[in-house]
Amino acid sequence: MKEFEELIGYKFKNKRLLTQALTHSSSIGSGVANERMEFLGDSVLSVVVSKYLYDNLKSQTEGYMTKLRAKLVCEEALYKYAVKIGLGERIIMGKGEENTGGRNRKSILSDAFEALIAAIYLDAGLNRATDFILPFIPDIAALKSGNLITGDYKTALQEIVQQTAGSTIVYQQTGEKGCDHEKVFFANVIVNGVTEGSGSGKSKKESQQQAARAALIKMGYND
Fold this sequence. Notes:
Elements (H helix, E strand, L loop, with lengths): L1 H7 L6 H7 L3 H4 L6 H22 L5 H12 L1 H10 L2 H4 L4 H5 L6 H19 L1 H8 L6 H6 L7 H9 L7 E9 L6 E8 L2 E8 L2 H15 L5
Antiparallel strand pairs: 1-2, 2-3
């Protein structure tokens, strides 16, 4: 735990809070795992991000800030935050869950990240939780640019491309390699007949997401 505390930049006074935040229900059952902390962490995260946007995007409307907040706190975004601190390796879970890919499952990692926020909040209050959360949020220059992409890359690309009437998007699976249990898939995304991005992943869906991400970056959008 000491190594992880150093990684996240916070030393818990009550170590049991950290243990509970990292405990998945598959390990010991609900009630003493991290579900309740996840609930609290979700609210703390929303408050912190809302305050950050309110303070720094003074000319933006409520509707714009609501949509931006949704992108910053969605499951995909939280999953990426969790990956940055290697949270999947720290989660305490049952063997069955682990053997079926639980340590890399987006729902589990995003939930654990929210629980970790709650643990810090309970241990030290809102200011310290804010200090933990804000480094994961893109800087104001990126937010103000309007070119921020988080979450579902395919949906984001579709929304952008469809701003031009008659535009088309086609995903093309270009191959796969590896054994059945370690297979990697490859895909291209073709916009208006031109290949704009390529990607790979452990599933066809993931390969298409990564192809869309590559296309968005090519178009000048920030990830």
